[in-house]
Amino acid sequence: MNKKIILLGTLLLSCNLALTGCSATKGDAGTGSLFQLKNEVSGNIFAMDTYMQLTAYGNEADTAINEALDLITSYDNKWSLGKENSELTLLNQNGSLPVSPETAKLYQYAYEMYQETNGALDPSIYPLVQLWGFPTQEYRIPSKEEIDTLIPRVDFSQTSLDSDSLMLTLGQDMQIDFGAVAKGYTSEKIMELFRSHGIESAMISLGGNIQCLGHKKDGTEWKIGIQNPDGGNPLGIVTTHDQALVTSGDYQRYFEDCGKKYHHILDPATGLPADKGITSITIVCQNATRADALSTALFVMGMDEACSFWKAHSEEFDFIIYTTEKELLISKGLEKCFSSSLPYTVIQ
Ligand code: AMP
Ligand code: MG
Question: Which atom of ligand 1 is nearest to the CA of 177?
Fold first, then answer.
């Protein structure tokens, strides 16, 4: 990894307010930098097509941040579809591949979430993501015929993993993409790594994925701002500890044609950008991998189904939804820790 280490005596990176949903810009993946104060170390890296920022406090914070940056790079090398030798690139080219244990684990988790969300989360959506031009930013609106031709290839149940050989096999002409879950998984693994180094306070932002460990160094709770898709003040602030906050939104990656917006979260049932009443959804959950999978899946499900899903799992996660009608909704578990200058409804 090409990592630049800079020691700065006076730099103070504030993690009091982290805005979710940073927009992704291209750069040199794997090039990271590290800033250090006494017991406070921050690292930055561009990977997985987004900017990532990590801050940890503790005696071993510098080792922890260095190892976290290396972990991010190793995952990026496995799962980036922009890298010609990544495991997923080779899998998509060959149709089958013996994969690493990490890739097998992420695949298995994605498969469980595919089943649990009735296919709203489906990593085999990738041929359609390409058809719309999102990976290359050569955007185009495909014809109905083109979409209909690719829809039969979107069916994660046609993929399989041999648990002994870790041979991952795709169905005919299928391709997969872990874009909807990889950052959450990475976030979760970074927290495990931090804990193994005795870190009790940390905040990381992997693009739109925020995760905080413990409380702030002064013992108070983290205050995490939720980006307003319309710009201006945040939708609200969540005051919390030990949580992941993962946002999926139609404003994060999109193009416009004749005044209409086409965004990057596709409905596997139609092949079109999901369009069921949600502009942005933030999942608040202790498990970042689950938060990432659910943010994408509930965005696809739309308002009604997302609320039903939450009611069946209200002990596990909460949400903040901004609808296409510009209504702000939060689920009841957030009532005590959410504040906003905007009116909002609490879903019971
Ligand atoms: P996220 O930002 O976590 O919501 O993930 C969105 C990314 O996941 C997109 O940029 C696509 O690469 C991919 N994606 C889009 N739609 C889906 C879907 N329905 N299921 C799984 N992955 C998807
Ligand atoms: Mg996601």
Answer: 12
Ligand 1 and 122: CB distance under 6 A: yes
Measured CA to CA, the distance from residue 118 to residue 131 in angstroms comes to: 23
Q: Is 291 in the pocket of ligand 1 (CB under 6 A)?
A: no
Residue whose CA lies nearest to ligand 1 atom number 1: 180
* 193 touches ligand 1 (CB under 6 Å): no
Sheet holding 3-5, edge to edge: 3-5, 32-37, 40-47, 50-57, 201-206, 209-213, 244-249, 278-285, 317-323, 328-331, 345-347
What distances in angstroms separate CA 41 from CA 11, 90, 242, 279, one per listed residue? 10, 36, 19, 35
300 Cβ inside 6 Å of ligand 1: yes
CA distances for 37 relative to 45, 57, 64, 73, 325, angstroms: 18, 9, 14, 24, 45
Q: How far apart are CA 99 and CA 86, in angstroms?
A: 10
Closest to 216 measured CA to CA, from 15, 11, 9: 15
Which residue's structure tokens are 């890296």? 45
What spacing in Å lies between the alpha carbon of 60 and ligand 1's midpoint?
35
Among the listed residues 197, 184, 162, 152, the one whose alpha carbon sits nearest the alpha carbon of residue 39: 197
Kindly identify the ligand whose nearest atom is closest to the C-alpha of 21. 1
For every one of its 348 residues, what pLDDT tens digit does the chain have, with 9 covering 90 and above?
A: 333 222 222 222 233 333 332 222 223 445 677 776 668 999 999 999 999 999 999 999 999 999 999 999 999 999 999 999 999 999 999 999 999 999 999 999 999 999 999 999 999 999 999 999 999 999 999 999 999 999 999 999 999 999 999 999 999 999 999 999 999 999 999 999 999 999 999 999 999 799 999 999 999 999 999 999 999 899 999 999 999 999 999 989 999 999 999 999 999 999 999 999 999 999 999 999 999 999 999 999 999 999 999 999 999 999 999 999 999 999 999 999 999 999 999 999
* Residues ≥6 apart with Cβ < 8 Å to 108: 161
Q: Are 75 and 102 in contact (CB under 8 A)?
A: yes
